Amino acid sequence: MMIKDSYLTADLEHVVKSGSISWNKMKGSTVFITGVTGLIGSLLCRTLLAANDAGKLNLHIYGLVRSEEKARQIFGELLERDDFAMITGDITGPVSVDGTIDHIFHCASVTASKTMISKPVETLMTAVDGTRNMLELAREKKVKAFVYVSSMEVYGSFVDLGHDVTEADLGYVDPLAVRSNYPESKRLCENMCIAYFSEYNVPVRMARLAQTFGPGILPGENRVFAQFARSAIRGEDIVLHTKGLSEGNYCYTRDTVKGLLTIALAGKDGEAYNVSNPDTHTTIADMAQMVCRDIAGGRIKVIFDIPETNTFGYAADTRMKLDSSKLQALGWKPEVGLCEAYERLIGSIREMEELQDDL
Description:
- The chain is of the alpha/beta class.
- It has helices spanning 6-16, 39-55, 68-75, 113-118, 120-141, 181-200, 224-234, 253-266, 284-295, 325-328, 338-358, and strands at 30-34, 60-65, 84-88, 103-106, 145-151, 204-209, 211-213, 238-240, 247-252, 271-275, 277-283, 302-304.
């Protein structure tokens, strides 16, 4: 059975009540979401279902999953709703859906760095074949908007850009580094979107996400924000396997969901948008220190344990700050800072663990 999370519930209600989202534009729409057992896809599904409950929008949501069992663990009784249909299939193969589709959010992607190192071919082909199949579906259904969930990693690295990174900037990615499969495939998929827009008039919009976290993270999540949060909860020192010099760009989950909906409803076809909170910009090391000092109250510390080789599959150090003014010009505004994001994430994890202990 799906476990309730009061922090997540409050965030969903906040998005639904947001005056910046033109919910009326979605009335009666059918929305297709890939990657619904991932963080972004699952939160989009939950948000749209909550919007249905609050505003009687008559939305119908299709969620594409590979594992029905995993979907049932995440969504529980939500899968019994008439307005939510789960489609089991592999995104690397053709996807067929009866009836109309108005909006597609393509969220499916490999996100674990270790997988990018251990299975680089699968990482690439999941991105390339999956995106092509979704674009073909969008072309067939003549959708109103196709939102491709991309990544800030498309920017690569900059020596000295001299200003915050806008959607028009592009840095260097080493094509001979195995770990480059992720940023390179994101670049290719963005260009594939543009190709379908140019040749077939598919209304594509690209969302270049910063690192996103908050309530709603899934069991087994092991990205750096989850590791730091669990260290604070358990009172364990944070161990860094790099010097932590990479500059992180972050965004709270509900702010990211609002950003994706804003792009779908107000974005311009053929354009990319950074989804990031400039106020959360920091280095990995400084963020770790902040968690130890401000979240854990100084009860834990940062320890550096750096291996000789990059066996963990971490991305190369980046030094950039994303500029989200293009998205903010559409009416979107990030609201939750880094410290509050951690406080709400940790509160959510603790609540979930307590509920599980009671079962």
